[in-house]
């Protein structure tokens, strides 16, 4: 048999893979995801958090969603009729559930714990869902639940477009409310108690089952009505966030800490800080296309400047007000950006990433070095940094500092917008698109890159200054490479070059994991998964810049 | 607009040489482009036409020779400084800023005309606003000039090929260059588009007073617009003359057909009658 025959017969078998095989394949993929989810220990960790009180935990929800998605895809892929599509989904769900059953059986029959720490009897118990551990009943119910979940996923996909979207909206509302119980519950606490203690929306751990059902239908009805209205106005029902969506988001961001507790305000404060840094890096990377992995260096310069100027500790060189130290910190960070930019910016692309990576570490190592530790405190850091005062009022509550960061973020966003729509902003974009051509149009590449680097550094310096005032102390270990990576991930997830993207990215990558403390050690795993998934599904980001640009004119 | 005295050479190239490692791309290239003229550079593929362009616009650094624009030496200067001397160009494979809109592309072309500083932009001063408004109007004017006023808000990457070529010309023209260098502007164009291009080039020279240098394979376009033609072959200049002289030159035909002069064979026909020499062009324009 010639090579050609072999390859062509292979192609034929590939093309003829039956829908059933496809369903089994999907089921196996989902099953593998479930098993991995359980074996890394994420299942056990998240099982402690209830989404709907007494009914569904976070890890169960995540598992259900995985199978739900598999069923959805299995039904969509089928070229045949509805009943065949639903059958495929059921098969995929059965297979995925069976994978978990096998895992439970293996955990009890074989000792996997020597290599797989998470494969404990506790996990088997959790996966047995209340039945006797690894009993036949426990093993049989997993495939059945999987099949049911996949079937629901398939049904949602097969519904008419409007109804399907409404169902998904309802589901999303329930999940959001359940996950962020802390936020919403603390908001409801501030409201007058209309419903009486017997009808609380939130139980001690998650949503009340009754409230969950009500919320599902409310959100679904809202989605239906919204689409109807959009159709009536002659528009196309759109997904994603629109201009009114942005206004709502900003209003929410401004009002949020007022209606919730200090913990949420603290998280919001962190989000605002990362937004500040994100907008700085957005100038460098999003607009000018400069990959900067040493961004944290300028954050550190800003933080240490405020620490030295505002501390009442022994290392202070002055004891001035935060409002004097803030501009000094911004200017010093900008100067640091310029000094480091000069040698670094003559290299391009990947080499720039390497060079800046080194730079970020240099600052941290310098602070720790023997030469500078008498002045900067070495690993002991600088402590007792005074809180900012405004008209005799000390800004030390998380809410107050949140607003400080928010105002700065607003200023920075304003400056970014202005620059973006001016000569220099267009020059940055042009450099990102094609450096040679930009230069041939009279743009000085080194000067404009240096300006981008300097401004980005200044914004990071502002973030560092607020950070020092917030924490009240600075230590070198706060300025790890991971901070730079976080900021970079915010930009990639939100959409390079897009200011609303920075906001969305900071909320998704900083706010959500902080609120879902169960993620804990799995945080960076989910970062990784989210980044890879984004590159596949929506490489331009959640709120891409080009969408905003053409969207305005397309309608 | 820079209206130069007719006949004084705007661009003077003397003994230009460029070697990539051991490979000599061009040598002994002398070129005079009269101010206010349309000057074409033709020659077989690989003859060194684009390399000469790249040397003049400082895309690559010449190995030797002198380049002068209006009497000032510009060789050895960085590309953005050469651009500030008044040389604008387009590229063989269109090189726009693909993720920017039509008007934004043309606004970038005005970079060196705009005076408002960084601080003025942040504060949004009156001067900055006026200048931006003017720049936008000017950009729209040039989009209109090249015939694509409706493309202002479209992303460059979504435009049809012909419009991309026009946008590239608008971007080059909007910066008030003294000399516009077009690298194969008619490539991939159909006969109608070719005719429109000839018209456009004539308006660039006539209405804007910009000197035009173009590399082109489309002989109909070259013969229609060029006052002088320089023929490149194997990295050196083969000959130079008016369109009439070039059409009658046997060496030119031989270069295109891959034959050397002096070789025996049937007497070569005038170039516009030899479709085999430039098949795509002649077949399209016939």
From TrEMBL, chain A:
Major localisation: membrane
CDD domains: TM_PBP1_LivM_like (cd06581)
Coiled-coil portions: none
Alphabetical list of Pfam families matching this protein: BPD_transp_2 (PF02653)
Segments traversing the membrane: 23-46, 58-75, 87-108, 138-156, 168-187, 207-225, 246-275, 287-310, 322-345, 400-419, 450-475, 487-512, 524-546
Compartments in which it is found: Cell membrane
The protein's name: Branched-chain amino acid ABC transporter permease
Lineage of the organism: Bacteria, Pseudomonadati, Pseudomonadota, Alphaproteobacteria, Hyphomicrobiales
Automatic annotation (TrEMBL), chain B:
PROSITE patterns: ABC_TRANSPORTER_2 (PS50893)
Keyword annotations: ATP-binding, Nucleotide-binding, Transport
Protein's UniProt keywords contain Transmembrane: no
Pfam families: ABC_tran, BCA_ABC_TP_C
MF terms in GO: ATP binding
Segments forming domain ABC transporter: 11-259
Keyword Cytoplasm on entry: no
PANTHER family, sorted: AMINO ACID ABC TRANSPORTER ATP-BINDING PROTEIN, CONSERVED COMPONENT OF ABC TRANSPORTER FOR NATURAL AMINO ACIDS-RELATED
Protein name as catalogued: ABC transporter ATP-binding protein
Organism: Ancylobacter crimeensis
């Amino acid at each position: 048999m010639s090579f050609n025959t072999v390859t062509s017969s292979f192609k034929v078998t590939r093309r003829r893979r039956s829908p059933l095989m496809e369903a089994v394949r999907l089921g196996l993929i989902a099953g593998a995801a479930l098993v991995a989810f359980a074996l890394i220990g994420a299942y056990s960790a998240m099982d402690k958090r209830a989404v709907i009180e007494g009914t569904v935990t976070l890890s169960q929800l995540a598992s259900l969603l995985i199978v739900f998605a598999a069923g959805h895809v299995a039904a969509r892929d089928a070229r045949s009729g509805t009943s065949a599509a639903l059958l495929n989904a059921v098969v995929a769900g059965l297979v995925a559930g069976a994978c978990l059953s096998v895992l439970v059986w293996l955990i009890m029959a074989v000792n996997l714990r020597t290599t797989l720490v998470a494969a404990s009897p506790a996990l088997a118990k959790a996966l047995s869902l209340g039945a006797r551990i690894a009993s036949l009943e426990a093993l049989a119910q997993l495939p059945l639940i999987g099949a049911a979940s996949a079937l629901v996923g398939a049904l949602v996909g097969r519904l008419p477009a409007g109804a399907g979207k409404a169902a998904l909206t309802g589901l999303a509302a329930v999940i959001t409310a359940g996950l962020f119980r802390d936020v919403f519950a603390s908001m409801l606490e501030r409201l007058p108690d209309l419903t009486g203690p017997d009808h609380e929306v939130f139980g001690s751990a998650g949503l009340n089952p009754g409230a969950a059902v009500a919320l599902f239908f409310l959100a679904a009805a809202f989605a239906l009505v919204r689409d109807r209205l959009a159709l009536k106005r002659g528009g196309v029902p759109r997904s994603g966030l629109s201009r009114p969506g942005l206004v709502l988001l900003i209003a929410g961001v401004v009002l949020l800490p007022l209606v919730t507790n200090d913990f949420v305000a603290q998280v919001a404060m962190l989000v605002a800080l990362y937004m500040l840094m994100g907008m700085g890096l957005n100038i460098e990377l999003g607009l000018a296309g400069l990959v900067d992995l040493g961004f944290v260096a300028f954050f550190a310069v800003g933080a240490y400047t405020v620490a030295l100027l505002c501390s009442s500790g022994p290392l202070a060189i002055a004891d001035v007000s935060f409002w004097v130290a803030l501009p000094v910190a911004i200017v010093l960070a900008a100067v640091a950006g310029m000094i480091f930019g000069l040698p670094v910016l003559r290299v391009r692309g990947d080499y720039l990433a390497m060079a800046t990576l080194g730079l970020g570490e240099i600052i941290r190592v310098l602070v720790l070095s023997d030469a500078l530790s008498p002045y900067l405190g070495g690993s002991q850091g600088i402590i007792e940094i005074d809180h900012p005062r405004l008209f005799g009022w000390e800004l030390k509550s998380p809410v107050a500092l949140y607003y400080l960061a928010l105002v700065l973020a607003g200023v920075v966003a304003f400056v970014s917008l202005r620059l973006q729509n001016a000569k220099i902003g267009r020059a940055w974009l042009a450099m990102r698109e094609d450096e040679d051509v930009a230069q041939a149009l009279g743009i000085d590449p080194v000067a404009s890159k240096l300006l981008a680097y300097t401004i980005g550094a200044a914004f990071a310096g502002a973030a560092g200054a607020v950070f020092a005032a917030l924490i009240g102390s600075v230590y070198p270990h706060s300025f790890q490479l991971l901070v730079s990576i976080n900021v970079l991930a915010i930009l990639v997830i939100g959409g390079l070059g897009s200011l609303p993207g920075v906001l969305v990215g900071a909320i998704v990558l900083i706010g959500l994991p902080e609120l879902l403390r169960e993620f804990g050690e799995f945080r960076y795993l989910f970062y990784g998964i989210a980044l890879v998934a984004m590159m596949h599904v929506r490489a331009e980001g959640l709120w891409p810049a080009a969408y905003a640009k053409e969207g305005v004119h397309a309608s | 607009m820079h209206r130069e005295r007719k006949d004084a050479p705007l661009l003077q190239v003397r003994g230009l040489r460029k070697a990539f490692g051991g490979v000599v791309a061009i040598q002994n290239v002398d070129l005079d482009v009269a101010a206010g003229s349309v000057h074409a550079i033709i020659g077989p593929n690989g003859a060194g036409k684009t390399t000469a362009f790249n040397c003049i616009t400082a895309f690559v650094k010449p190995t030797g020779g002198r380049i002068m624009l209006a009497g000032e030496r510009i060789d050895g200067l960085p590309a953005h400084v050469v651009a500030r001397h008044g040389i604008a160009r387009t590229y063989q494979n269109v090189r726009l800023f693909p993720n920017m809109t039509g008007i934004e592309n043309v606004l970038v072309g005005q970079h060196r005309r705009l005076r408002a500083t960084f601080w003025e932009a942040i504060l949004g001063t009156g001067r900055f606003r006026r200048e931006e408004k003017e720049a936008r109007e000017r950009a729209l004017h040039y989009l209109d000039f090249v015939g694509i006023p409706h493309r202002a808000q479209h992303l460059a990457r979504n435009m049809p090929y012909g419009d991309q070529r026009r946008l590239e010309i608008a971007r080059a023209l909007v910066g008030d260059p003294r000399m516009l260098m077009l690298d194969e502007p008619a490539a991939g164009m159909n006969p109608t588009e070719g005719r429109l291009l000839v018209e456009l080039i004539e308006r660039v020279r006539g209405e804007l007073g910009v000197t035009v240098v173009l590399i082109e394979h489309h002989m109909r376009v070259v013969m229609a617009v060029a006052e002088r033609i320089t023929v490149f072959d194997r990295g050196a200049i083969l000959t130079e003359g008016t369109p009439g002289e070039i059409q009658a030159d046997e060496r030119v035909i031989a270069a295109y057909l891959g034959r050397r002069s002096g070789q025996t064979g049937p007497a070569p026909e005038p170039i516009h009658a030899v479709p085999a020499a430039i098949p795509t062009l002649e077949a399209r324009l016939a």
